Amino acid sequence: MVKSLWLTSLLLVSWPLVIPPPVAAHAFGIQYTLPIPLWMYLWGGGVVVAISFLLIGYFLKFSKKGSEKIGLNISQNLLLKFFRWGLVQTFFKSLSLVIFSLTILAGFMGSPEPASNFTTVFFWILFYLGFIYLSALVGNFWIVVNPWRILTPNFSPKLNYPSSLGYYPALLFYFLLIWLELLSNGIGVNPPSLAGILIFYTGINFLGSIIFGKENWFKYGEFFSALFELFSKISPIQKKENKFYLQIPFSKLLEERVNHFSLVIFILFSLSSTAFDGFRSTSWWLKLVYLLGGGQIISSLMLGASLVLFLSLYLSAIYLMKLLVKTKLAVFDLASKFAYSLLPIALVYNLAHYYSLLLIQGQSIISLVSDPLNRGWNLFGSSDYVINIGIIGAKFIWNSQVLLIISGHIVAVFLAHSIALRLYKDRKSSLVSQLPMLTLMVFYTTFGLWLLSQPLRVGG
Amino acid sequence: MENKKSYLWFILLLLLTFLAGGFYIFKSSWNNSYQNTQINNISLASSSVSINSNIKTFELIVKDKKLFSGPDVLKVTEGDLVDIKISSDVSEEFHLHGYDKSVDLEKGKTVNLKFSANLTGRFPYELEEDKVELGALEVSPK
Fold it and tell me: pLDDT band at residue A82, thresholds of 50, 70 and 90?
């Protein structure tokens, strides 16, 4: 019995690898964006530094600790009530299952070209990118429509979820997903392989739920739940004790703190993985590869190294903070306390690098939704829709990228300072304590701008 | 929230940034459209003078499934007429992404790909059959 279980699991694992990807995956996820001009990068960097000084000045004079206010109670709002209505929720859950099944089916039955396949376009562009932005906008809608949550029975735990494990399972899947996206030599964008992986992931969620119970698994293990829950804390729509509130965007990040160090690493990976993707398209990456050698293994190690780098920089800033102002908290505790202030930067990094992909290549879904299985159907009459590349021009993209990065920086600095005010005794201490964090944030955001300004290498 | 007043200041600061940014965006695009109006006015006035958009010509030689000679990156400005002359040692298909234009290459022959660069951005081009990226066309906004 056990032997056959092992055999089945082995088959399940190797299934995605059995289906060979095309010799070289045709261009999927090409970005038609130009690097931002040098002067714009310099202007942006300058603004980031200047605004930081302005904010310090402001904090010196005006900031003070205030009372906690949650926000406007909107539980009785009609639109909200509509979306909470059982029938509506059932509709969205069913829709989610239909889309999920279609995504898997189209992987096997649709076009083998990633750019023309419903599975790859929907999963990588509409879903993975789009849902991050949607969660940041309207809150944790994923908890309602998550197909894995809908499909998994309410298993009760066989084992208590060990608290030391934290979000590490979700972090592992995050790493694997990014690896699949960037370093799998096309497996991740090969429709049947992707569909197979989604089936496999369904099995993993079943297994995880059987062992640790559904609730704990879907909090700490199911990657997308962890990801979208994290970004949903940015949204102005928040839920607390079964009531809904409308509050200032990002303010939820001040109400909670990270409870497990694994989530700190998770947040930093969101930042570092986007930076890694951007860095890979530059000529500097070629120089690095020339030094260290190319290949999948080295690249995979580099993905890990970029996380280690971003994490070390963050912890160094925290350590300096501890040196500057006395506190009883250990470095890891302090790091957890301030971790949410990095989330705005993670969001704008993601938006600046990828939103144009969603807007341009994401349009493929319009024709794909009418003929998802490549049968020549025309369900919604849109099967001959051609992507409009000129929908936004290079100039608009540049300006929006720079504005996004600057705005994310401002919000992050503001959040970090608010956290500091709560932590330290007086205004002066909190200001002094924030200098390392401020430097770090200036670095992150200027590096983000630098990445966007780098000439893109050919063959990237 | 910590302090309602400090958040109002925060929003004000964010707003100012967006306003400053917006001002800059609109200013530069207004400058451009103003310049274009001026040029159109001049061309209407002097019909004997034919205004040509810039024609940018590039020569690419493909050998052994890669770029043997010619620039890696073709830089043009929005509105230019682009003329890419490609010669190849094998028959292949030259495909320009974004613009989605293709031209068949034949051994020993030079072919032309001519079009108007009306989309801004960076558009890679490749040998379609062997999936080899040869370079990219960069169309800068005016």
Answer: very high
Residues of A with Cβ-Cβ distance to B11 under 8 angstroms: 248
Nearest chain A CA: its distance from B29 CA (Å):
9
pLDDT of residue B49: 40
Q: Do A34 and B2 touch (CB under 8 A)?
A: no
Residues of chain A contacting B126 with CB distance shorter than 8 Å: 27
Lowest mean pLDDT among A222-226, A250-254, A286-290, A400-404: A286-290
Subunit contact B3:A251, Cβ cutoff 8 A? no
Q: At residue A421, does pLDDT exceed 70?
A: yes
The ipTM value here is: 0.85
Compute the average pLDDT of residues A166-172: 97
Alpha-carbon distance B3 to nearest alpha carbon in chain A (angstroms): 5
pLDDT digits over B110-128, tens only? 999 999 999 999 999 999 9
Three-state secondary structure call for residue B76: strand
Pick B141's closest partner by Cβ from A54, A254, A393.
A393
Nearest Cα neighbor of A276 from A303, A301, A309 is A303
Q: How many CB atoms lie within 10 A of CB A447?
A: 19
Task: Report the residue from A34, A35, A64 with minimal CB separation from B3.
Answer: A64
Nearest to A360 by CA among A32, A129, A26: A32
Contacts of B101 (CB under 8 A, 6+ apart): B95, B113, B115
For residues A406 and B17, the answer to whether their CB atoms sit within 8 Å is yes
Does residue B101 sit at the A interface (CB-CB below 8 Å)?
no
Comparing A289-298, A318-327, A407-416, B105-114, the range with the smallest average pLDDT is: A289-298
Residues of B in contact with A32 (CB under 8 A): 97-98, 119, 121-123
Residue with tokens 């750019």: A115
| pLDDT tens-digit readout, A198-212 | 999 999 999 999 999
